[in-house]
Amino acid sequence: MARDTASLTQRLVPPMPRTSGWTSAIIVTVIGAILRLWNLGRPHEVVFDETYYPKDALALIRFGVEHGTVKDADKILLASDGNIWNLQIFTDAGSFVAHPPLGKWIIALGELAVGATPTGWRLSVAIIGILSVLITARIARRLTRSNLVGALAGLFVALDGIHLVMSRTGLLDIILGFFVLVAFGLFLLDRDHTRKRLATLIEHAGIQANATTWGPKFGMRPLRWAAAIALGLACGVKWSGIYFAIAFILMSLVWDVSARKAIGVKRPWRATLLRSLPSTAALSGVIILLTYTATWTGWFLSDEGWDRSWAAGTGVIAALSSLLHYHSEMWNFHVGLTTEHAYASNPWSWPFQSRPTSFQWADIKDRSQGCEVDYCASEVLALGNPIIWWAGILAVIYQVWRWIGKRDWRSAAVLVGIAAGWLPWMMYLNRTIFTFYTVVFVPFLAIALAMSAAALLGPPDATAERKKRGMIAITILVALVIAAAWWFYPVWTGQPIPYNQWQMRMWMPTWI
């Protein structure tokens, strides 16, 4: 059947909203920045796994590779003036590390700027978290062509507790999530640009899409290559980035199938499997691998890195052989990590936030540290905003229905982001894992919730009464999210509060 080529561009690439949406995106980003930067050095402690990564970051600055540390290195670090060059906390030997170097190099940038203080080793992470709010808002807007959805998604990320806590702690997970988000955004841009180019070829160059079984070639895909670089960087922070690499590349190939269908290609699946899959898999794989390997540059250039001289010889082959052996040891560490931990959690429980991770706890009974009563508590609890997460469960169910029942590709895209960050952990139920790993897919959960909330307004031709009721419901949801963020902010940021007020915030016994 002949297609209406006059409307092809609009069908392939629906127009963006008339207003840019930058004002609302910047507003929610400023909100996120204030919450993440305010009193960033509190608590003045080495919290949770900060006992690893900030010191590794310092070693990278000093030696190019991670080094062993002396006894009581954390205490020496906290008691110092933060001068990274004078700290005497390292041994002469390189140390084994469980994660690639890139995330620690990024933490090191904050230490270079501010010093080896809690503020210093959290600064880069906080900036990454702030940028994630902005990028989420812009991705959600492009995905849905809605300024409202973009603003809501950005606001939900800004006010989520797990994202906030991880943005204020010198750990790697928020950095991993940032590169994953960047990769998703680049794939989304590639989708729009490729479809627009196809529409131009057909409408203006007179190419017949269905003249051949495979249709026109898609041409160069620099945005897809850039997405592969971002995925390589994600893997250079934590290996779990590989799950997103596989999921997003497959997602982009399915988008190619839908583009070919839209322009009338007779065999869209076959055309994609034979024309797009081999080149995409090979080129993306090479880009990801080279990018990942480049993150180990400091280890290659040093003679002090752990396992650096495992293979005999001094050439490239020997270096790569040593790195491969190092990776086998890292793999053995990860799959064998079954140590009991009080705050370990099962991935099935993550959507319910039933077992958040306590990063820091102190009871204060001497009216010190800002405590104005006889008994205060101070805690940093990596707990998601309950309204966002519990409403998010319903939102995900709704988006599954949109995907299956309505074939909505936007719902499928968001679900891919959630699934890639959550479902792989089901393979490691006996491994020691934590709820805060969910920070990687918090932006996708926020977009799912924003899309579901906006759906309450009804279709474009909905009645004024329907739109009014929908807006009231959205307003109530936003108000509840803000109220929950205000209520839990003290236990997200380690503020000393009266002990009875801390107890009032422990809604579940498993939160303690």
What proportion strand? under 5%
Structural class: mainly alpha
**Oligomerization status of the protein chains:** single chain
Q: Mean pLDDT score, rounded?
A: 92
Poorly predicted regions are 1-6
The helix content, as a percent range, equals 55-70%
- CA-based gyration radius: 25 Å
Shape label: globular
Query: Biggest β-sheet: count, sense, barrel?
Result: 3 strands, antiparallel
Q: Please report the total strand number as a whole number.
A: 5
List SSEs in N-to-C order.
HHHEHEHHHHHHHHHHEEHHHHEH
Distance between the termini: 64 Å
How many H/I helical runs? 19
Domain ArnT-like N-terminal: 27-266
Keywords: Glycosyltransferase, Membrane, Transferase, Transmembrane, Transmembrane helix
Family: Belongs to the glycosyltransferase 39 family.
Membrane topology: Multi-pass membrane protein
Give an account of the 3D structure.
It holds the Pfam family PMT_4TMC. Pathway: Protein modification; protein glycosylation. Its main location: membrane. It is found in: Endomembrane system. It is a multi-pass membrane protein. The termini are far apart. Helix 9 (173-204) packs parallel to helix 11 and helix 10 packs across helix 12 (268-294). The chain has helices at 8-12, 22-37, 53-63, 73-79, 102-114, 118-144, 147-158, 161-167, 173-204, 222-235, 241-262, 268-294, 297-301, 316-335, 386-406, 409-422, 442-455, 464-493, 499-505; strands at 67-69, 90-94, 357-364, 376-382, 497-498. Among the domains are: 308-334; 345-411 and 437-512, no CATH class. It has 19 helices and five strands. The chain is globular and about 75 Å long. The longest helix is centred in the middle third of the chain and has 32 residues, at 173-204. It is mainly alpha-helical. Residues 1-6 have low confidence and may be disordered. The strands form two sheets. The protein has a three-stranded antiparallel beta sheet. The chain has a two-stranded antiparallel ribbon with strand order 1-2.
